[in-house]
Amino acid sequence: MAIWHGYILLEKPAVLTLGEWRTALVALRAAWNRVPDDPQPARRLHWRLSVDQTKIIMEASFDTEVVNIGNAATVINGALPQYTVAQITTSLQNNLTLWRVGKDRALSLNEALAYVDADRTAWNGPL
Questions:
Q1: Phi/psi at 62 (5° precision)
Q2: Separation CA 69–CA 87 (nearest Å)
Q3: What is the structure's pLDDT at 41?
Q4: With a threshold of 0.85, does the pTM exceed it?
Q5: Domain tally for the chain?
Q6: Which domain holds residue 108?
Q7: Helix/strand/coil (H, E, C) string of 64-125?
Q8: Which residues contact 50 (CB under 8 A, 6 or more apart)?
Q9: Which helix (H) or strand (E) holds 22?
Q10: Chunked in runs of 10, what are the mean pLDDT values of the chain (127 residues)?
C-alpha cells in the first residue's frame, strides 16, 4: 500500500447518464475513502463537482494501488452491473487524472488549482 495525499480529477464517461454518474461517485467514495475517521479533515475524501456535475476533483489520502482506472471500473461495475468492467475501463480512458501522484500535496494542489483556474466558469458558474 502506497499512501499519497493529493488531488485527482475524474470526468464523467460519456456512456453514463448523470444519475448513473452519481451512483458511480457514491460507490467510488466508499471504496476510495481510506481514512474516513482521520482527525485531520483534509485526509478524508472530499470533493467538488463542476457546475454541470460532469467533473469532480477529489482530495484525500489515497492508496495509489487502489486509485486507478482498473479499480474504478470494478467499483463502478459493482454499482452499475448493466455495464461490463471492459466497457467501463474503455470509457474511463483519459478521464482520470492524478495530479503529481506520489509527490507533495502542495504540488498536487497547485496543479488542481491551475486546472480550475483555466476554466473558472465550469467550476464557479458565470461571474
A1: -100, 150
A2: 12
A3: 85
A4: yes
A5: 1
A6: 3-124
A7: CCCCCHHHHHHHHHHHCCCCCHHHHHHHHCCCEEEECCCCCHHHHHHHHHHHHHHCHHHHHC
A8: 56, 122, 123
A9: helix 18-32
A10: 90 94 94 86 91 95 90 95 95 92 91 94 78
